[in-house]
Structure of Response regulator transcription factor:
Amino acid sequence: MRVLVVEDEQLLADAVATGLRREAMAVDVVYDGAAALERIGVNDYDVVVLDRDLPVVHGDDVCRRIVELGMPTRVLMLTASGDVSDRVEGLEIGADDYLPKPFAFSELTARVRALGRRTSVPLPPVLERAGIKLDPNRREVFRDGKEIQLAPKEFAVLEVLLRSEGAVVSAEQLLEKAWDENTDPFTNVVRVTVMTLRRKLGEPAVIVTVPGSGYRI
């Protein structure tokens, strides 16, 4: 899952990003609304965690722009105000969910995960295919009932492949969804991660390489 965190309190933004990365999400961070608009114009995000009171460009305007563009990106709006009227206003602007500060990180993570499932084809909370069962909330993976321990990037790649429901996912798409913008696109990190993931999942291999196209399960 690819997430953009937009928060002008840099310590909070970086802490949220670090926590979400530990949950096997690819996370980019910006600290003002103008930078947020620049990022959403370049990258496809599943979820934007958006502070409402942003400098340069207000969070409300960022949210409105996402809606105007017709993007499938879901918006989780954050604000220091927990008043009902503010929550209603945020949702009317186009936010998909609303979380007042201060918040529990576990709740933030759960809400981001829930929004990430609201794709054009709604996905179940637990992904299952070819004997593999992946629970994003619990960070658990099982194959044929046996638990498998995966590193965060391996988990993220497997989640992207399972979300594709049998469709081929290119290396570029995996790089976009499982790594953040600081990753060198010319490295072989995708190929190496897929190889390690295959080994951990065991035989018979369930990740199929489609020559010239990518991977699928």
Observations:
- The first strand starts at residue 2 and ends at 6.
